[in-house]
């Protein structure tokens, strides 16, 4: 008896009692639907978080700042105020300079480092000449910018370019992000010494998607950041020029968590503190994973209940087909083949239930995504709440089929052990 014959026999046997089979499939459907939907939420949220990580420097970037001194004591407790020192919180953190940059580049685990110039801006104005409070930051090398429209600002261009934050599009007089592309905006930058403002014109080459990490923050290419920094430093003593508030370090692309921890330890010994973007938003990821994990457990409970349904369905099927089983064994069908027939029936129930559950989750996910995009996620452009992948769907189907197969082994084993003579006498 070929496997194809076994498959055909199992399929036809399932339809002998359609009501019982359908109810069992529905039970599996509920579990598969719940697990697929929660897995989709997990994939969607983590994909968005990954985009956010990429938009501020990527997985292998580490933000390096001077280590705060005097803020904490032993075991992380606040340090007591020293009347003699009278040091304020603003004085506890020093600025970085070119010497720090060279020192950081020599630390083991840091492949490259780039100074992030502190740029100060007063306002921005666009098509309607209205002035709005504005803040921007220089771009990082190899930055993967999550854009709603346009392209990333060119770091090697001499032209002043900007990736505008989406919050400014309509305020500056543009109907859409697409309309803003190629337009010129005016950015005012003050001198830290005199307070005198100078206006710089820049071209909008891209509009960012809404960011959880850098809400309202626009990105400037190197030329624009250098020009604004130059204006900010006008009139300052030479000793106060060329200082940075942050240095972005680059590690190897396949860096591990252990290696990142080692780099942080070396930075700490050198008098710096390092923080990855994952450190900043890791808590969000952990919360989402915990919530979807709990919801997945409800799906697992539904599958457990469905497993008992499979056992019940096949046990009743064995009882109803006792004489048929005896006849098949009397005609030479081995116990192994009988066991395989009933096991395949169980796996088929699992396959149908899981496939329908995934298809149902995909349909519900599309509807939920549409509702979310039009309501509570309207401001988070580029965020698809529920996403599905072929690999995760395949894993769900295989796992559920495996559970169904295991649930079917008990009745299948009973069928395989039936004595053909006794079975033929069964009424």
Polypeptide structure, described:
The protein is α+β, with helices and mostly antiparallel strands. It has two domains: 193 residues, no CATH class; 124 residues, no CATH class. It is built from eleven helices and twelve strands. Strands 3, 4, 5, 6, 7, 8, 9 and 10 form an eight-stranded mixed sheet that branches. Strands 2-11-1-12 form a four-stranded antiparallel sheet. Strand 3 and strand 4 form a beta hairpin. Helix 1 packs across helix 9. About 4% of the residues have low confidence. Belongs to the ABC-4 integral membrane protein family. It is found in: Cell membrane.
Topology, element by element:
Layout: H1 3-14, H2 18-55, E1 61-66, H3 98-105, E2 112-117, E3 123-125, E4 131-133, E5 136-138, E6 147-150, E7 161-164, H4 177-180, E8 184-190, E9 197-208, E10 218-220, H5 222-233, E11 244-250, H6 257-269, E12 272-276, H7 277-320, H8 322-330, H9 335-374, H10 390-417, H11 420-425
Parallel strand pairs: 5-10, 7-9
Antiparallel strand pairs: 1-11, 1-12, 2-11, 3-4, 3-8, 6-9, 7-10, 8-9
Helix pairs in contact: 1-9, 2-7, 2-9, 2-10, 7-10, 9-10
The tally of beta strands, per DSSP, is 12
Q: What is the H-and-E element order? A: HHEHEEEEEEHEEEHEHEHHHHH
Q: Give the % helix.
A: 40-55%
Q: What gross morphology would you assign?
A: elongated
Low-pLDDT regions: 70-76, 85-93
What class do helices, strands and sheet pairing give? Answer: alpha+beta
Mean model confidence by pLDDT: 84
Number of distinct helices: 11
Q: Could you give the distance between the termini?
A: 27 Å
Question: What does the main sheet amount to?
Answer: 8 strands, mixed
């Amino acid at each position: 008896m070929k496997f194809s014959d076994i498959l055909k026999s199992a399929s036809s046997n399932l339809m002998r009692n359609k009501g019982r089979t359908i109810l069992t499939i529905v039970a599996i459907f509920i579990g598969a639907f719940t697990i697929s939907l929660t897995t989709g939420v997990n994939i969607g949220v983590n994909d968005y978080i990954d985009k956010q990580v990429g938009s501020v420097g990527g997985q292998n970037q580490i933000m390096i700042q001077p280590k705060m001194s005097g803020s904490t004591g032993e075991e992380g407790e606040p340090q007591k105020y020293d009347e003699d020192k009278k040091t304020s919180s603003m004085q506890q953190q020093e600025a970085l300079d070119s010497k720090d940059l060279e020192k950081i580049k020599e630390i083991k685990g840091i492949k490259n480092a780039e100074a992030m110039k502190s740029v100060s801006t007063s306002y921005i104005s666009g098509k309607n000449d209205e002035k709005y409070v504005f803040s921007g930051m220089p771009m990082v090398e190899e930055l993967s910018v999550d854009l709603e429209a346009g392209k990333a600002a060119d770091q090697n261009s001499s032209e002043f370019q900007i990736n505008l934050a989406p919050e400014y599009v309509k305020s500056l007089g543009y109907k859409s992000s697409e309309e803003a592309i190629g337009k010129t905006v005016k950015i005012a930058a003050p001198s830290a010494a005199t307070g005198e403002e100078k206006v710089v014109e820049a071209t909008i080459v891209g509009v960012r998607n809404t960011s959880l990490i850098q809400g309202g923050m626009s990105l400037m290419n190197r030329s624009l950041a250098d020009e604004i920094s130059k204006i900010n430093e006008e009139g300052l003593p030479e000793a106060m020029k060329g200082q940075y508030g942050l240095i972005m370090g680059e590690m190897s692309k396949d860096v591990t968590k252990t290696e990142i921890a080692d780099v942080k330890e070396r930075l700490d010994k050198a008098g710096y503190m390092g923080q990855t973007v994952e450190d900043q938003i890791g808590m969000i990821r952990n919360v989402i994973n915990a919530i979807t994990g709990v919801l997945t457990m409800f799906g697992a409970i539904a599958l457990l209940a469905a497993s008992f349904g499979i056992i019940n369905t096949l046990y009743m099927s064995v009882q109803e087909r006792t004489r048929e089983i005896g006849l098949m064994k009397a005609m030479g069908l081995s116990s192994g083949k009988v066991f395989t027939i009933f096991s395949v029936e169980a796996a088929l129930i699992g396959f149908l239930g899981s496939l329908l559950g995934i298809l149902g989750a995909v349909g519900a996910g599309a509807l939920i995504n549409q509702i979310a995009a039009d309501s509570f996620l309207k401001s988070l452009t580029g965020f698809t709440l529920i996403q599905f992948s072929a690999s995760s769907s395949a894993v769900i189907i295989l796992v559920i089929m495996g559970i169904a197969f295991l649930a079917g082994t008990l009745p299948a084993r009973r069928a395989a052990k039936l004595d053909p003579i006794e079975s033929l006498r069964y009424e």
